[in-house]
Design brief:
Number of helices of chain B: 3
Structural class of chain B: mainly alpha
Structural class of chain A: mainly alpha
Number of strands of chain A: 2
Largest sheet of chain B: none
Number of domains of chain B: 1
Largest sheet of chain A: 2 strands, antiparallel
Helix content of chain B: over 70%
Number of domains of chain A: 1
Strand content of chain B: under 5%
CATH superfamily of chain B: F1F0 ATP synthase subunit C
Strand order of the largest sheet of chain A: 1-2
Shape of chain A: globular
Shape of chain B: rod-shaped
CATH class of chain B: Mainly Alpha
Radius of gyration of chain A: 21 Å
Oligomer: heterodimer
Order of helices and strands of chain B: HHH
Number of strands of chain B: 0
């Protein structure tokens, strides 16, 4: 039984190996890119829009609304990053019902890479929003004594983000494999359905948590505007 | 018992204990959170969207401890470093 698709190696050149994670990551990327290209080739603004355009528009507006609800800001800045995270993870997890497909998110290397993207994106958005000094001041709040704890929190939540996604996806594929041994008739189908649900929920949670972390990095700025407006109104 | 048998027995037993005990805490916590969220929704149905979203995020946070236990027990069973080390020593 394979713990992660990293161990399935198709081709090896020297120390560079082409494993299942890389192959299926590129496959998902190709599906997403080709699908978006095909659908956005013929866009219309009239009353008769193609059904796939309707589908994409509903997804994008749903993501945009959710981001707006969480960050309480204009979502256009965060939409490319968070939307890509959500779509990539969701497609990976949903395709895991296809026989022979090993979800790339079931490998710790993929989820770590995604979590590292979030780790970099949080200060990037924070600095772009409020400047370097104001962002770095977040780390010594409320007192400079909290500096190590703040840094530890940043690292541990990245680790939690990676291990949570990996553990959930890995466990659902593992449960399917174990059930195939014990009760191969109907039970694996039910667990696969449950796996679809948890896969989508995990993609949602990953994107929402990334949005929450990014919003937490922007908070100081927002509070300052808020206090200014309250002072103005008083 | 030679060391390989010791390691196998200890790994299997501790994997079971790890996931068994590790599932209790998150289960209790998630149950409490869910019950509280349901009563909040019953009191304020207008806030269902916001409560559900926060509930999902919170459940994911709570559940991550159980996921850690699961990953540790999976490592103990399928990718045990001590087992591999002693297996390579006895084999080679």
């Amino acid at each position: 039984m394979q713990l992660s698709p990293d161990n399935i190696i198709y081709h090896q050149i020297g120390f560079v190996s082409l494993n299942a994670t890389i192959v299926f990551t590129w496959l998902v990327m190709a599906i997403l890119t080709a699908g978006s290209w095909l659908i956005t080739r013929r866009l219309s603004t009239g009353a008769h829009m193609p059904r796939w355009q309707n589908f994409l528009e509903s997804i994008v507006s749903m993501i945009s609304d959710q981001i707006h609800d969480v960050t309480r800001q204009e979502s256009t800045r965060f939409l490319p990053f968070l939307g890509t995270l959500f779509l990539f993870i969701a497609v990976c997890n949903l395709l895991s019902v296809v026989p022979g497909f090993h979800p790339p998110t079931g490998s710790l290397s993929t989820t770590t890479a995604l979590a590292l993207c979030v780790l970099v994106a949080v200060p990037a958005y924070g600095i772009a929003d409020s400047g370097l000094g104001a962002y770095l001041k977040n780390y010594i709040k409320p007192t400079p004594m909290m500096l190590p704890f703040n840094i530890t929190g940043e690292i541990s939540r990245t680790l939690a983000l990676a291990v949570r996604l990996f553990g959930n996806v890995m466990s659902s594929s593992m449960i399917a494999a174990i059930l195939l041994i014990i009760a191969p008739l109907i039970f694996p189908v039910i667990m696969q359905l449950l796996g679809l649900l948890t896969g989508l929920v995990q993609a949602y949670i990953f994107a929402i948590l990334a949005a929450v972390y990014i919003a937490a990095g922007l908070k100081v700025h927002e509070e300052r505007i808020h206090t200014l407006t309250t002072i103005d109104s008083e | 018992m030679d060391s390989l048998t010791c390691i196998a027995a200890a790994s299997i037993i501790s994997a079971g204990v790890c996931i068994g005990i590790g599932a209790i805490g998150p289960a209790l916590g998630e149950g409490r959170a869910l019950a509280q969220a349901l009563s909040s929704i019953a009191q304020q149905p207008d806030e269902t969207n916001s409560i559900t979203r926060t509930l999902f995020v919170g459940l994911a946070m709570v559940e991550s401890t159980a996921i850690y236990c699961f990953v540790v027990s999976m490592i103990l069973i399928f990718a045990n470093p001590f087992w591999n080390y002693f297996l390579s020593r006895t084999g080679g």
